[in-house]
Write a structure and sequence with these properties.
279 residues; mainly alpha; two-stranded antiparallel ribbon; 2 strands; 58% helix
Length: 279
């Protein structure tokens, strides 16, 4: 593993911090491009991005410390050394979502549309950011005999140094699939909010599976004996389904190729026009 990427004089530059930062940067520029397509002003996207970066980092760190307090028994100051690794993504997402909603409400932004812009970019950022976990050696999997198993000797002095499932790499590959699916779906006719619901479903399916391979969460037990992340995904999936069933499925298409500003697909609009002409 490579916890420290390089040094600038006496100061180490950690792989984890570099990869997470790179993930944020790449996601940011894709987000700006899509926001321009949808007519959302750049200043709002910049404000939201900065708010969400800060909120997600703080929320993710607090959740990680609460969930894994044993990692800080030796030196409690490690709580503040975020660059060395240790973030719980779902905890960060919760705090970020609250601030996201408040900002959109304050500035009268189309909340569902903006959520649809951000959701695929989260997956894009995770594609890169999870390689920071590989470098640091966190979020590791269970022991395996598979030829691609990796050993993480720098993670925990009490952990046996044996080949393990590289669940961080599995995550990165899954995020590639999720990002491509969402990128395709947002071009298809849909109503605002559906890209986000699709992201919740796809991420939840991935997380429910990947948690069964992770060693560092093996002792967690929350809802129905599930891990913290699996429990959060279960609740989020239920919320996403209820949102779709009682609200979004009743709304006309408003985005995607072939959809007119009135919310109708071009084909349907032509059919209506032809019927009106015949009449």
């Amino acid at each position: 593993m490579l916890p420290i990427l390089f040094h600038i004089g006496p100061w180490p530059v950690y792989t984890y911090g570099v990869m997470v930062s790179l993930g944020f940067i790449v996601g940011y520029y894709v987000l700006l491009d899509w926001a321009e397509e949808e007519g959302v002003e750049e200043k709002y996207i910049v404000d939201l991005f900065l708010i969400l970066v800060g909120a997600s980092m703080v929320g993710a760190r607090i959740t990680y410390v609460i969930t894994y307090p044993q990692h800080f028994y030796y030196d409690w100051l490690d709580i503040f050394r975020v660059w060395k690794g240790g973030l719980t993504i779902l905890g960060g997402a919760l705090l970020a979502l609250v601030l996201f909603g408040l900002y959109c409400w304050r500035h009268r932004l189309p909340t569902l549309l903006v959520l649809d812009l951000f959701s695929p970019c989260i997956a894009l950022g995770l594609i890169i950011g999870r390689w920071g976990c590989v470098g640091y050696g966190c979020c590791y999997g269970r022991p395996t005999d598979l030829p691609w198993g990796l050993t993480f000797p720098n993670t925990d002095p009490l952990m046996e140094a044996v080949p393990r499932h590289p669940t961080q790499i599995y995550t990165s590959l899954c995020m590639v699939v999720i990002f491509l699916c969402l990128r395709w779906y947002r071009r298809r006719p849909h109503t605002d909010g559906m890209v986000t619901v699709a992201f919740i479903y796809l991420y939840s399916i991935y997380r429910l599976f990947i948690e069964t391979l992770r060693e560092d969460v093996a002792t967690e037990s929350y809802i129905f004996g599930l891990t913290f992340a699996q429990s959060c995904c279960l609740v989020a999936s239920l919320g996403g389904f209820l949102t779709w069933f009682f609200w979004l499925r009743h709304r006309p298409y408003s985005r995607g190729e072939g959809v007119t500003p009135s919310g109708q697909e071009e084909g349907k609009t032509k059919e209506v026009a032809q019927v009106a002409t015949k009449g």
